[in-house]
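Practice problem 4.
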């Protein structure tokens, strides 16, 4: 089962440039969360800070009682064993075949025998649909297969937290759909805590249990998927519905003249909230809630057509 990540008042700068400040959220154990935001808002920096690759200016990140923002290197090393990371490009060693790439963390961090390593590697290859490709080099396979190989490597140490840094980057919509289904199936199988950084709106609308949005150097909102998909908050509504009207512009934030020119325009109606993607076997994940449950609990009427199997998943539909 995954572990909870508690983030309190986290702030990160590079020199005089503030990336984001006073970010506070709790990533629930075993759930799938997505972090969104316009380009350049520090989403990847957030992931690197969570795993201790970057030190925040202030704030805390509590994982199993340890604040990794201020702990010793020895404590950080132990906490990092809880993590698996899928990098944007897979980050495979080009001179190693897939088998050796995936076996690498086991050989570096455990004392397992080669027979034990082989059993684990073949299991992860099977989970990610890569059986039969283990002798290929990363340059001999497609981008989608490299992503899956990177995911297999992220899973070999049986992590309780898995971070995905733009897993859909460079993939076509069909491969992205396959990858999204794989992520949901994996969460159901291993019950780890998943955090996905993505720009893909369909992924954000259909995959996670919770959604966060980084914008203008702060966390605009974080909460259950239905909360953000029914939100009237302009920046959330604009981003999740892929609209031009709203506070986000080409350079992140629109200036006063641009906003004034839009003053007589209204954001289009919220599109229907789609059904959440379910595991392939049809058995609900532990953290999966009944469609519309959050809206009913909050007394909120979802947009017309929400939670219907046959609605279009496209933004603005």
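Answer key:
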């Amino acid at each position: 089962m995954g572990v909870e990540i508690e983030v309190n008042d986290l702030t990160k700068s590079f020199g005089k440039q503030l990336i984001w400040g006073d970010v506070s959220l709790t990533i629930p154990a075993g759930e799938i969360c997505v972090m969104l935001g316009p380009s350049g808002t520090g989403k990847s920096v957030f992931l690197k800070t969570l795993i201790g690759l970057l030190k925040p200016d202030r704030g805390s990140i509590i994982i199993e009682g340890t604040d990794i923002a201020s702990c010793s290197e020895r404590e950080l090393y132990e906490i990092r064993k809880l993590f698996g990371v899928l990098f944007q490009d897979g980050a495979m060693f080009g001179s190693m075949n897939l088998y050796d790439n995936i076996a690498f963390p086991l050989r570096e961090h455990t004392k397992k025998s080669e027979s034990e390593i082989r059993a684990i590697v073949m299991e992860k290859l099977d989970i990610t649909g890569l059986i039969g490709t283990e002798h290929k080099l990363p340059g001999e396979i497609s981008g989608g297969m490299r992503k899956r190989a990177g995911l297999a490597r992220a899973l070999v140490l049986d992590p309780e937290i898995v971070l995905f840094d733009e897993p859909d980057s460079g993939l076509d919509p069909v491969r992205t759909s396959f990858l999204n289904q794989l992520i949901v199936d994996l969460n159901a199988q291993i019950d780890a805590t998943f955090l996905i950084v993505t720009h893909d709106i369909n992924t954000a609308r259909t995959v996670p249990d919770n959604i966060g949005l980084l914008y203008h150097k702060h966390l605009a909102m974080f909460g259950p998927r239905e909360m953000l998909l029914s939100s009237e908050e302009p920046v959330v509504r604009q981003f999740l519905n892929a609209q031009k009207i709203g506070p986000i512009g080409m350079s992140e934030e629109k200036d006063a003249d641009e906003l004034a020119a839009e003053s007589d325009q209204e954001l289009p109606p919220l599109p229907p909230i789609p059904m959440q993607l379910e595991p392939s076997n049809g058995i609900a994940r532990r953290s999966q809630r009944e469609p519309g449950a959050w809206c009913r609990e909050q007394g909120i009427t979802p947009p017309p057509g929400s939670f219907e199997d046959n609605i279009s998943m496209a933004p603005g539909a």
